Amino acid sequence: MSFVINGKDVSATPRPGQCLRTFLRETGHFGVKKGCDAGDCGACTVLLDGEPVHSCLIPAFRAEDHAITTIEGLESDGGLHPMQQAFVDAQGFQCGFCTAGMILTCASLNQAQRQDLGAALKGNICRCTGYRAIEDALDGICNVEDVPAGEAFGRSLPAPAGPQIVRGQARYTFDTAVDGLCHVKLARSPHAHAKIVAIDKTAALAVPGVIEVLTHEDAPSALFSTARHEKAWMDPDDTRVLDDIVRFIGQKVAAVIAESEAAAEEGCRRLVITYELLPAVVDPAEAIAPGAPVIHPGRTPQDRVANAARNIVAEGHGEYGDVVAALAASAVTYKGTFTTQRVQHAALETHGGLAWLDASGVLNIRSSTQVPFLTRRALSDIFNLPPETIRVFCERVGGGFGGKQEMFVEDILALAALKTGRPVKLELTREEQFIASSTRHPMRVTVKAGADRDGKLTALQLDVLSNTGAYGNHAGPVLFHACGESLGVYNCPNKKVDAVVAYTNTVPAGAFRGYGLPQSLFAVEAAIDELAHQLNIDPFEIRRRNVVKPGDPMLYPPDNGYRDVMYGSYGLDQCLDLVERAMTNDTTEPDLSAEWLTGDGIALTMIDTVPPDGHIADVAIALRDDGGFALTVGTAEFGNGTSTVHRQIAATILATTVDQITLKQSDTAHGGHDTGAYGSAGTFVAGRATQAAAEHLANELKTFAAQLWTVDPNACALADGSVMHGRQRLSFAELARQAGAEGVRLSATGSSQGTPRSVAFNVQGFRVAVNKHTGEIRILKSVQAADAGRVANPMQCRGQVEGGVAQSLGATLYEEMVIDATGRVANPKFRDYHLPSFADVPRTEVLFAQTSDALGPLGAKSMSESPYNPVAAALGNALRAATGIRFTSVPFKPDRLFPLLQEKYGD
Known about the structure:
Largest sheet: 7 strands, mixed
Low-confidence stretches: none
Number of helices: 26
Shape: globular
């Protein structure tokens, strides 16, 4: 068959049933991405005769004799297409996985379509940006700066991978061709709780192309946690690579390895698996009740399971003062129970990876992960292999949001590669991502709060029940984090916490952006507002009277014993002022009819900039022969922007420009150690290591130049790509030549241990309109103020805030994983799970406090996770102000709001 791809004739015959997406990728067009394989996300968009189509829905044979344009073919005459350049100028991307499809759709729009971008872009989803930067690209707005040497930090510089992303040349996990590649597919349990009695492989092995079938009998018996942390005490050992007990619908039972995906899938279908069904429990309150089925019998506190007999993974109980007495004596009190649902990370690149043994016998894992070094450590322990015989690395990662702080595929990949000696691939489908990876922890939070007549808090109490699902990855840390800064941000003499996280026979929960704080803040910030309403005190004012200030202890029970959290900078007061001013000054009168009710709401959040008990980053930097610098870091890039910030830090200290800094990252073969890009640590921890390495190298450069000039190194300085001493000047290129002639390598290293830690602050404000007859919500204004210290890259940081607000709005308004009575995920695809599209997301005004953090790199601190946290709470408070009704469960879908609105306002 004959195809025209990017103007070139291609002769090829697609396989029967093959879609255009896989056909194009097999011909080397890796810019065509897989996000859903159902026509829901647009990552696979190509132009067919100039019209955008979802290539996953088009049978490949139907494209014969049609002009196919992928992102690689959009540019002409060796230069960028105007739309590609517009996305570079506006930085209309973060992780970049959706960008190729987004650009192709945008490039095809006519003027009429541009008048309704919500409709025109409804087929293209971006999980990262919040869409404002994409709109800027369409409007021809340039958001990037060009700055002189030594002034990179604090400026809006573009992501180094931008040109590759818009061309479709940035390489993600599967953007490579591997000779002799085998494919892994996983047979999964249809039962919520069962013992595997037998697995008959005979029919599966008879499928042409099937090479091997692996079951629990082939897997190591070691117990571990899929969660990845620097210290093992944080998570229970309750998981095996393949187990003979299944504890949720969708748990992997066997791995079929074959020459093709189709053969592997057919092999899975032909496995004959005999189960002995066990009683299951899907509700966390029922799970911890006496007599409930025990999900992990035999696990003990030594395995870091608090009480296996009651399905309690972890629990925390503590009190400061006397809450009962304080509530009794309070002028006003409030009690409410709030529930938050499961949501999916929905990173457009699903979990997956490649594995192979190289000629030296090293096991290589190329994976979509936030934690390559911790994954190597786990594989070493599970398979009893020396760490130096394992390499784990990632290329660019297509979104994370905490979901890739896990090891869901690398263990199976390692097992398959070691058993077969062949290169292997495992890529989860979108449905598998829903039913078999991890989710946000659903929680039930009961809050009690009291205040005196002056609005000073007298008591705060939380009773939390969290549902971790079938396995305890991140169960304890998320629970304790939820009960931490949400209470610690307020001065209050009496505080109490009773918190439990339960096993259930449902899909596991895990790390998710915010790490428990959005769930607890939804309750705590509502209680603060309710006290304010009773006292007739402004919501901003009651918070000003009660928030911690520098010098105040940040206390919350139970005491975790860590004393290294400090006020590196404090901008919470500024954030409150900025949001109040923005809300007050906006006097726009919405054009609404009488059935619409309007109201304003706010919420605040504080977050520690690093997880407790150590977070390590090692960095190396060296002067290159051409006078530029080679920077090596361990942190992964998945839209978090660390690649940009690392170069900005180094370029500023070394008095050069960012284009002179080449970056290698996220590869255990590079040496050193890096705990990973999670817990808001990418800039704060790894950035400090980069600062230290660059400062050490700056001293080395001055010392070497001083030796050449026989002067005091302290009298030398770096400026404009050179070492200076008075009128003497030695360019870095000449310095490299001189050092090379003497056999000297000018290089340095830097490390950070993640302590002491600072705190970051955010305040979110909303103005909403609610239709009292239908429950429809319209967001009239969204503003967030952030204390990010000295903002490393204002454009990029603004994008992190906008993206965090957009993602959190999805969870607040409509995203919900529905679990049926048997524990099955009822909506395991994007089509039935409402991700925010262009038309759904309001533009958020982003404001920054003017602070400089004494602990962070060059004054900066984290700001990728915390913007998500106050959104649900602020929107709930706005709904309360508009309607007079306190809605206590998210998502705020119209049908959920309608009954209470109907009760109050009638027809």
